[in-house]
Each structure stands twice: as C-alpha cells, then as structure tokens.
Amino acid sequence: MLGGRATYRLGGFIAAAAAVVLAAFLTIAYTPPAEALPSYARQTGQPCGSCHTDFAGLTPYGRLFKIQGYTAGGGPYRSTLFPGSDDSGRSPYLPPLLAKSIAGSDSNVTTDPKPYVPPIAMMAIVGFTNTQAPLAPPTAPYNPNNNVVVSPLSFFYGGAITDHIGAFAQVTYNAPPPGGFGTDPFAAKTWTWDNTDIRYADSTRFGPFNVTYGITANNNPTVQDPWNTTPAWAFPYAVSTLGNGFGPTPIIDGAFAAHVASTGAYAFINDALYLEATVYTTLSPNTQNSLGTDPFNAPGLFDAAPYWRVAYEPHWGNHWLEVGTFGMIANVHPWVAPGTTVTATFPQTDQYTDVGFDTQYQYQGDNFWITLRGSYIHEFQNLNASFANGLAFNPNDTLNEARAYASLAYGNNNRIVLTGQHFNSWGSPDATLFATNANFSPNTNGWIAEIAYIPFISSQAPGWPWFNMRLGLQYTWYTEFNGTSAGASANNTLFLYAWFAM
Asked: What are phi and psi of 275, to 5 degrees?
C-alpha cells in the first residue's frame, strides 16, 4: 500500500494527466487548417519526419528502425562499409497502412553501386536561460542570470555497421556547472561517453508469427527502449543545464547513465509484443574516469542488476496504443568517501527495486501527429548500508515518479510542435537524505510547456541529408519544490534554444 499521502498524490497525478489530455484535444480543436540524426536520414533516404513526430520522439516507423538494429537502408548512400546483397532496398518490415504512409514521403532511393559515407553526425544546443530567481553564488563562469550556453555538444556514430549490426554511440561535451567542479578529483571532466546502444538484430517466422529478435549492449538503463515513455528518451528532449531539475528520481531514471555496461536480449512479436531482459553491471571507478564519467555521480557500485521490459502495442488504422511495464533491481554498495580520491565502498548494500508502468497513444492525421503518454515508477529502497553507516535516517524509504504528456505535431513541410507535461516526484521524508529540504521531503512537482519549430522534419533542408535543426521555447514552473510550495515559483525557468544536427 502506498498510504494516504501517496494515494492523494497519485490521484492528483491522474487528474493532471486528464488535464493534459484535455488540453491537447482543445489545442487541436482550435488549431488552423533518434535523436534525429542526419546519418540515419542519409542511410534510409527518409526525411526525419518518417522516424520522428518530434525529435527525439519516435513514430512507429522509427521504433521499428531502432528495434531492427539501426540497419535499414534504402537511401542514396551505402549503409555499410562492405555492400550487402540487398543494400539497395533493405528497409524495415512495415504493417501495410504504415508502409503506404511512408511510401508517400520524399525519398532518394537509388540502385547500387552507391558511395559509402561513414554514419557520423554531430549536434549542438545553444540555449538562453532565465531563472525567476538568480543562481545561488558562486556562479562563475556564468552570470547570476540570463546566460547563453552551448551545451551539450555531441558527436555520434549512428547507423549500420553490417547488415545485422548497428549502433547509436555518442560522445558529449557538457559545460561546467555554476561555481566549477569543487574538490571532487573525478569531476573536472567536460567530455564524456554518452548514450550508447549497439545492437544485433534479425528476423524470422514461427508459424503465423513474425519475430524480430536481437541483442543489445548499452550503457544506460532504458536507452535501448523504442518508446519515449521510459526515462532515457522522455520529454523534455532539450533541457537547460542551468535549470533546477525535477527533484529526486528513482535510480532507473539516469542515476547510472554512463556508469554501467550491459548485455540483453529482446524480441518483437508480430509488431505488437515487445519482450526484453538485460543485465547491468557498474564499471570500475578507473574505467568510468577514463570514459569521462565521475563515478561519484552514481550512488555506488553493483555487480549485476537485472532489467526487464514488456510492452504491447496493438495498432489499427492510423492509431497505435502501447501499454507496458519495466523495472530494475540493484544491490548497491554506497561510497565510503565520495568527493575524495578514495573509491572504496561499504560491504553492505542498499537494495533498490524500481517497478514502472507506462502507456502511449499516437494518432497520425493527414497533416499532424497526436501523442499522449503517461508513466509511473515506484521505487522501494531497503537502505541496509546507508542506515547502518549514517547515510540515511530511515532503514526503508520509497520514492515515486509520475509523468503525463500531450503533444501535437502539426504541419508537414514546416513542423510546429506544441507540448505540455506534468511532472511529479514524491516519497518518504528522510532527515539525512533530504536534510536541506523543507520537512525533509523530496516532493517536487510542476509543469512544462514548450513550442518548437522544426523546419525540415518532413522536407529537405539545405544540403539535406546533412543538416537539421529545431528551435524551441520552453517554460518550466513549479507548484512544489524540495518539499514545499512556499517559494517554489522562484525556481521557474525560461529556456530558449536552437538545436542543430549535422
């Protein structure tokens, strides 16, 4: 049982979800009549709008491209270094209605021989951030407010390696935090390996069942997931590095991103049922440091953490409805002296059990996409190590995260995207873990509204398929922050950005 307060908050989340959904349909009624990488566009010959309703939000075609290992061809360039027997026309299996929709889009399919271009891409986000209250000192190298920052800047390998192996691999520059890196000896890193997902995929048939199956090796729980309802690819896709965040979140939501390595297997049956099992392990502190990752940014180290994913997505006509569950169990050895040169951990472990539920509905109209999403994650924390060593006040805690999202992507050649999201985190008060928060509480909630313009998502940009961009205006406001609604609005953030992909 979640208890009265949790029940109240979950009820509030459901009401917020209903409000977001209603707002989306009202917006539609009054509207006038992967990361999206250019390397993928070069490989497939499709404009970005075939894979994305709104980069990085995926369409059904985009999800199939990812599930099938980033290997689909059909573009003006050879998709692998050594030509495959079907390189000129290889494309994902598509349901008939979706295939008809994609066939009507622009493409540059040619016949062999084709030139080979390495599937290299880059992106950069240039953002202006205004916070309602100035940044707390020290702020160097930034101003107290109204800052323009280039972050992140990323380079990618995105595309096929062989006919059955493909990759999404990212190296990123992140701007330093306000006030610098402090005394943490591992923190002074601006370049790091980032989201990475390397796959082998193939397909077969078992009687009436069409099955795509594969192996994934990745470094961030949920980065391999083809739906945007799980944490790694959830909205907001662009976020200010100077914003105030979304409160404490379960460990499956980014706590071990770039700190782990994994191997997993998955199957997609009849383009409807997705099953996956993956096992993660933390990399050694020295390996993390060599890859540009601060090991102390994670709660500690673990040997093996199982992750599971089940999703069912029936589709009819131009409608797709997904319902699913995902989760992870990790026995974590906390750090003895984080922020120092000592990388020892306690012999006891804290057990984190995360169980998530998600749903998504998408509808493709003649000139628009509607996307509605909801997700809820419950984390149970058995804090044997932290409680015994004075790192937590309670032996057991809980933490919850909920999101409700609605988006309208309108227009074909010049795409405008209107998005609203409610976010909510709540959990057990803990006088040690949340010593500086009001009521020792992690509770944080609020709203995000964004309008984005993607001029070339469904048409050819100048120099296509070598370039794309997104312009966005995003506002985040808080109704509760770190356990209190008093003064929560001081954390409100305006973020104006230009996102370039080449």
From this structure: -130, 135
